[in-house]
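I need you to check the entry underneath: sequence plus fold tokens. Let me know what the token row says about the fold.

>
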Amino acid sequence: MTQTLTPATPPFEGSHLVLYDVSWEMYEQLLEVFAERPTPRMAYYKGTLELMKPLPEHERYGWTFGRLVTILSEELQLEILGLKSTTWRSRSKAVGKEADECFYIQNEAIMRGKIKIDLKVDPPPDLAIEIDVTNSSIDKMAVYAELKVPEVWRFADGQLTIYIQTDAGYIESETSLAFGSFPVKELAQFIHLDSQKGENARMREFRAWVRSQT
């Protein structure tokens, strides 16, 4: 059966649309259609496609996490390569997703200077960050497992949880593969919004805190 894309009103912020029995070809067509314009986030898992319009809260937390990881890497003298909400996909596994933030850290050196990334030959990002402020109909961790992302941070209800991939699936961890023994779960305290402090002031406080821990 031929599938076609027809114009529709974009979903409002925070809404999501779930489609079933969507072919891989249709998923790729949608990625192409929305590549050069504002787009809902898309997650694809073995025929199920979810389209979600992020809330400002979601985007603000994601942007702040990106800044925190950048500052942390600077203070720990680690090189990183940030790819923000790049779409990661695998046709053979029939999965695809945009992370809220993602980074190469352990594999930064071999990915340095690369623009086009092919997961058939290149490693997946070393770290993906998920901001959970709305309910998803797709198991995000199942998508990341198929993509073989070694470490995923999930921020929900003000708490940061670290997941490390093992042969048995993802397990919760107190420490990060990317940042070793550094207490990264405490980054959550610098995510919370403060009406008395600007974003840069909070980042300066975070940098000072990191230095106090090393």
In short: Helices lie at 24-33, 56-75, 108-111, 140-147, 199-213. The chain has five helices and eleven strands. The CA atoms of residues 22 and 47 lie 5 Å apart. Confidence is low (pLDDT under 50) at residues 1-14.
